[in-house]
Task: inverse folding
């Protein structure tokens, strides 16, 4: 049984461009049931890179795209296999809070009914998201502010730990750094 699945995965990898859905389905089974361990691989990444010779990022896109189709858009599985780049774009768009249901439906129509190329649709989607962010400048500013404070906090905490370990500065400076960290954490 396991050797049958193993051979099927290899065959699907060879036909990847034309049958990514079958490869995604087979890889999902291998990943979910951890069959790669039966075949002598410690982890899924080692299996995909050494045996079927696809990069980790590609394997993850295939897994995620197939799983997304199975759970969210099973009707698309019954049609001719859509390009996995299109499915991956639709999957990522489904979790964007800037997009509503009508945006999602429009995106799906462009990708699967109108036959637009995923890269072209991605450009349109990026422009739409930017436009919406510009319409809500206060929200965008708040997000940017929070991100900057979090980066600063990470740096300060790392430096405080280093200063404590190396004792390069007086304890008072470390205490002042801790006060600054506390103050910044209250700003988030």
Result:
């Amino acid at each position: 049984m396991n050797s049958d699945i193993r051979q099927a995965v290899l065959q699907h990898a060879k036909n990847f461009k034309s049958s990514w859905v079958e490869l995604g389905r087979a890889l999902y089974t291998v990943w979910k049931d951890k069959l790669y361990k039966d075949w002598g691989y410690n982890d899924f990444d080692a299996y995909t890179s050494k045996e079927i010779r696809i990069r980790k990022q590609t394997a993850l896109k295939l897994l995620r795209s197939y799983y997304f189709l199975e759970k969210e858009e099973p009707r698309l599985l019954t049609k001719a296999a859509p390009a996995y780049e299109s499915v991956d774009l639709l999957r990522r768009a489904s979790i964007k809070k800037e997009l509503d249901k009508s945006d999602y439906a429009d995106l799906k129509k462009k990708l699967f009914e109108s036959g637009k190329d995923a890269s072209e649709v991605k450009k349109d989607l990026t422009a739409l998201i930017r436009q919406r962010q510009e319409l809500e400048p206060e929200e965008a500013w708040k997000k940017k502010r929070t991100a900057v404070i979090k980066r600063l906090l990470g740096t300060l905490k790392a430096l405080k730990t280093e200063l404590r370990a190396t004792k390069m500065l007086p304890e008072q400076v470390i205490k002042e750094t801790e006060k600054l960290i506390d103050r910044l954490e209250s700003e988030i």
In short: The chain is about 80% helix and 0% strand. The chain has a mean pLDDT of 85. The radius of gyration is 24 Å. Residues 7 and 13 are 10 Å apart (CA to CA).
